[in-house]
Every structure is written in C-alpha cells, then in structure tokens.
Specification:
about 260 residues, alpha/beta, Metallo-beta-lactamase, Chain A, 6-stranded mixed beta sheet, 15 strands, about 25% helix, globular, binds zinc ion
C-alpha cells in the first residue's frame, strides 16, 4: 500500500466520467443451500490524461448470460452510444484498462445482438494483469459463444501487465488480487485529488463505509485486507473512490461524521 502512494503523481490532472451500463439482476450463491437475487448496477469509467483517452472496464453490454438479466426499465445503450451521449468519440479511445475479467466488466466489449459479434474497439490495446488473463483464459466456458467471442476479440489487443505499472501519464494500476487472482485497481487524479477505481474490491458506496465482503470474492482474506487498507488511506488522504456497482453515489469521498464536541 505504501508503494502505491509513493508512485502517485500529484501534478497530473485528469478528468473523468462515470457511465452506468444498466442495472442487472444476478443470482448470488451464498453457499450451496442459499442463494439470493441482487439488483446490480454496472458502471464503467472514461478518463483522459495528457497521454490519451482511456476506458476503465467495459460493463456487461448486451452479453447474454444465464446468471444475468437486464432489467427492462433500463434502456440498452451500446458502448459507443454511451460515449457519444457525452460527446466522446468512440474512435478516440486510446486504451482500455480492465480491473478484472468477470463478464460484467468485459461483456460490453462488443455487440452480441448482431448476427456476427462486432467488437467496438477492435484495435485498441486492453491492459490486464497477466495473472488475470492466464486464469480466465483457462477457466472460461468455451461452449458459451458470447464468452468465446469476447475473449477472442480481447486476445488480439491484450497487453499483459505483471504487477504495478504506469499505463499513461498519471494513470497507474496496482495488482491487488483478492476479488479475482489478477484483480487490479486504477489510480489517477483530478483537481489535485487522488482518485481510486477499486474495481470489485470496493464496488459500492456502502462497502466503502462498512468494508463488508461480497459473496463472490475469490480470496476473501486478501480482498478484505486490501479493502481495509484502501479505506484507511482514502479517509486520511481524502481520495475520491469510483464505484463499479454503486446505485446512487457513483463517485465520492469518505467524510468523517465525528464531531469535536
Ligand atoms: Zn463486478
């Protein structure tokens, strides 16, 4: 944790936008006897630095998945439509940074509704931890065509990272593991304030306050350790968190509610 702070450059200033890629219902298995349905908003982030324009995660898009059902009240926008809605040209994207490779973070890579899968960013480098790629490439369900299409599309553009690295001026990734074996989190700054996209280590505003675990962590102990350390640092240094699955507060700072009385 010490390391990630030192590496950070306070001087670089980047703007960012958080997009909501719809709300999905998903079935979580708590254990083999117990499961529950959750409504899960899926968010992704656009950030620009002096080195270019980046997307952080890709949402679920229209990926057809038996575990996920898009709620009808949310209209479907393709990735390019999301960006164009904010005046961002999809062909201006220079890179994609993936926190991890769960389907709700990579499903939006292309259009699954067309006769042939069409990747939206066919020539844009995708930065992912080598550990994550190796694990997922081994494990994903190859019988599921949509998954295979996504992985094949990504494979052509994948840039494997081994550990912590600066991706572009002022945009850093830090390997955390925990939620998945090669989960990484992303740091940059805006208005001289440090911003942390903690992926699914801290995915909602509630999780940033109570630090509770999600039921689908690969390694809960590591996840909890990283989450607690991040929350501590965010509190003392006034970071902004961006939340991958928050319904209401998509980005915010943790403020102390203690009173000096
Ligand atoms: Zn997720």
């Amino acid at each position: 944790m010490e390391e990630m702070h030192k590496k950070f450059r306070q001087s670089q200033d980047n703007g960012f936008t958080v997009f909501e890629d719809g709300v999905f219902t998903v079935l979580f298995n708590e254990n083999k006897n117990q499961s529950r349905m959750l409504n899960l908003p899926v968010n992704f982030v656009y950030v620009h630095s002096s080195d270019g324009r980046f997307l952080i995660d890709l949402g679920l898009g229209n990926f057809p998945h038996k575990m996920f059902k898009r709620k009808s009240r949310t209209p479907f926008y393709t990735h390019p439509q999301h960006l164009l809605g904010k005046g961002i040209r999809p062909d201006s994207i220079d890179g994609i940074i993936l926190s991890h490779m769960h389907i709700d973070h990579i499903g939006g890579y292309g259009n699954h509704d067309s006769e042939q899968f069409i990747p939206f960013y066919p020539n844009v480098p995708c930065f992912v931890q080598k550990k994550e790629w190796d694990f997922r490439a081994e494990k994903y369900d190859k019988a599921e065509q949509a998954y295979k299409n996504t992985m094949d599309g990504l494979q052509k553009n994948i840039r494997l990272i081994d550990g912590n690295r600066e991706i572009a001026n002022g945009i850093d990734v830090v390997l955390t593991g925990g939620h998945t074996p090669g989960h990484q989190i992303i740091f940059f700054s805006t208005n001289k304030r440090k911003v942390c996209y903690a992926g699914d280590i801290i995915s909602t505003e509630n999780q940033a306050v109570d630090g509770r675990a999600l039921p689908h962590d690969y390694d809960r102990t590591t996840s909890k350790k990283v989450r607690d350390a991040l929350i501590d640092q965010a509190r003392s240094q006034n970071w902004i968190f961006i939340y991958s699955h928050a319904a209401h507060i998509k980005a915010g700072r943790l403020e102390s509610t203690e009173k000096n009385e």
